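Hey L., structure's done. Input below.
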Amino acid sequence: MRLSSTKLTALLAVTAQLALSTAGCGSNFDGNVYHGEGFAFRVSPAPQGWRRMEATGAALAYEDGTTGGQVLVNARCDRDGEDVPLRSLTQHLFIRFTDRVTHSEEVLPFDGREAMRTDITAKLDGVDRRFVVWVMKKDRCVYDLLFFSTPDRFDASIGKFDGWVKNFTALPRPVDP
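Output:
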């Protein structure tokens, strides 16, 4: 079947409208609870100075307007990571980075499980960034909570992030029928 250019244009317009109308249906955030595809988590209200932003590949993202630091939270479930050590999951986040220097790496209690907290400086495209990342596995999901900034502004905002992270809670997953 061949479509006329008018029908093709109309079909593309409807397809685009459907894509836009369903783009946000897989997740939502009410300021405390984020619902994604197959997972949900609760966080504290954002600290003063943080503003929510959109970031490709992140469930939730903030920018600290006072220091320029950024926060990314992501989760993935039933895809990978169940049998992968926390250190390997953390290192995977930095595959494309060079000149990595690990300042600290420790396994700590986190949301009723263990999580790895790693403080690392690394370069992406020759630009230095300092990161703290928490990686946790829970209920067939991997959660990454990441903070980064320029090294010279890191100390000014890492305290807010570490305080905020302590209240993270992965919510129970729906039971499979």
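Residues 9 and 161 are 48 Å apart (CA to CA). The first helix runs from residue 5 to 22.

-- N.
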